[in-house]
Amino acid sequence: MFLIAWLMHLKMLSRSAFDGVLGVLWPLFFATIAFLMYGAGGDDATLLYAAVGASVMGIWSSVSTAASSAVQRERWAGTLELLVAAPVRLPVVLLPITTAMATVGLYSMVATLLWGRFLFGIDIRIEHPWLFALSVLATVLSIGMVGFLMSVTVVRYRSAWALGTAFEEPVWLVCGFLVPVAILPDWVEPLSWLLAPTWGVRAIREAALGGSPLPDVALCLGVGLAYAAIGFYFADRVLTSARRNATLSLS
Amino acid sequence: MTVIAVAGLQRSYRTRTGIRRRTSKTVEAVRGVDFSVERGELFGLLGPNGAGKTTIIKMLITLLLPTAGSARVLGYDVVEDPREVRKRVGYVFGGERGLYERLSARDNLRYFAELYGVPPREQGARIGELVELVGLTGRERERVEGYSRGMRQRLHIARGLLHRPDVLFLDEPSIGIDPVGARELRGTVAGLVEQGTTVLLTTHYMFEADELCDRIAVIASGRIVATGSPEELKSRVGEGSVVEVEIFGDAEPVRARAEALPGVRSAIAEDRGQAQVLVVRAEPGAEVAQAVLACLDGVSTGRVSTRSPTLEDAYVELVGGA
């Protein structure tokens, strides 16, 4: 069920010309900003640090904005009611949607690295390729879970889809995608620990620069699983509330 | 065996208006409805816009929680056992929404087959069978965004039947479909009932309800105002005749005069194109045609006819009196 649903949503995402063009351009835009910020006087390691940050920005942006608006789009299209009327549990319906979006975000990782290599001449040398791949996968999955949690909220609250857009840019900062969290005010750091992308981007950087990413991978997956657990726990309650307040079909 | 049992069902909505001073208002959409549907029956809910038909269906398929009362489908309570209800019912609504535009019909059906638990090994054959049933063979690999309204509606039907539901809820399924498509749809629905599927249908089209339904509940302002077979409902407007007069200009004075005539049960004026049609229903045994014609002095008239009452007459009278 998960595989077919994921495939169908991936198919739909790949067939939207508008989303497709944006999806191709945004990561390159992020990458360009990052490389221009760090380009002057930055060594290869610093530029790789920036490249990883920019690529995770791409994954995060494709999920944060798309996952929450995806459920709203289902509502507008009249398919949300049909998904809810199906006998499977709501989380099982929503998870493939957000995971498909996170999968699309994978492109941003590849595009950013290639953009840096060929346009800015950065020496992209990944010290631990397998651990790097594992870290990327863990990050994509965990960000998918953030999207899942947001999409559960949108089932009940119609305007919650705007949350994704509202969170998009603050998370770039709080999770240390482009600048280290250490230079931000002290109260930001505990907040960053609660966000899976913080651990994801750390893990990817560790793997790329030759460190030990496994503790960060574990934390990234752990926080992602916590989001999934919260989403599963609240899904039925949220759905009951949506049925009580008649918010499934209104646009 | 009773498949759908509804008792005292109610549903209200709260609406809010204003930005600074928000005021909320409660709208009673369904106000204590009772009815039951037997296995293999085609039961119609007939009523004007906003009467509560769709709200009733949405409560029965577990998309809405009732405010009060109870409803059981195949013995399962729609509040307590929603998943058991969902496994056994199909839902089809009219209009163009409810499909994934960027997917083909086949992919739409494949996705919903997964959601409705059709075993993977059976999916291919079941989808092929349904595509043929609804006449989409040869077009099933095309994206839905290129489909006509009729094709979309047929795809909706196929989707609703994927998991072989025991009960099918059809919410105005023929809305916006051309007459040939609507006739084919009626044929498909009649075929399903012959095969033993219980169907609850809402519609605005009297001839559709008359042709298909075993029993009809007429609903107005959230209440059932009459239940019975189409023949029983027609008999409620009696054996009396109906006089129709086409009037050009203001029909209201004539309507008022006609309504006051002895032997007249009701007189209404309906807009039909550029003219208005005065519809006068007579009491059983009363002969009112001549008296009605005498009321027409000073107005420009067109066609005049006398006919037997139809289901539409029964509907107008029942809904008008609600």
Taken from the alpha-carbon principal axes, the silhouette of chain B is globular
Taking Cα atoms only, what radius of gyration of chain A do you get, to the nearest Å?
18 Å
Classified by CATH, the class of the largest domain in chain B is Alpha Beta
Number of domains of chain B: 2
Key words describing this protein structure:
heterodimer, A: about 250 residues, mainly alpha, 10 helices, B: about 325 residues, alpha/beta, Rossmann fold, Alpha-Beta Plaits, 2 domains, 6-stranded mixed beta sheet, 4-stranded antiparallel beta sheet, 11 helices, about 35% helix, globular
Please give a structural write-up.
- The complex is a heterodimer of chains A (251) and B (322).
- By secondary structure, chain A is mainly α.
- Chain A has one domain (2-245).
- Chain A is built from ten helices and no strands.
- With 322 residues, chain B is of the alpha/beta class.
- Chain B folds into two domains: 2-228, P-loop containing nucleotide triphosphate hydrolases (Rossmann fold, 3-Layer(aba) Sandwich), CATH 3.40.50; 238-320, Lrp/AsnC effector binding domain/regulation of amino acid metabolism (RAM) domain (Alpha-Beta Plaits, 2-Layer Sandwich), CATH 3.30.70.920.
- Helices cover 33% and strands 33% of the residues of chain B.
- Chain B contains eleven helices and 14 strands.
- In chain B, the strands form three sheets. A six-stranded mixed β-sheet of chain B has the order 6-7-8-3-9-10, with helices on both faces.
- In chain B, a hairpin with a 5-residue loop joins strand 1 (2-17) and strand 2 (23-38).
- In chain B, helix 4 runs antiparallel to helix 5 (149-161).
- The relative contact order of chain B is 0.13.
- Chain A binds chain B through residues 1, 4-5, 8, 11-12, 15-16, 77-79, 81-89, 93, 240, 243-246, 248-249, and chain B through 13-14, 58, 61-65, 83, 86-87, 91, 93, 95, 97-103, 107, 110-112, 114-117, 143, 159.
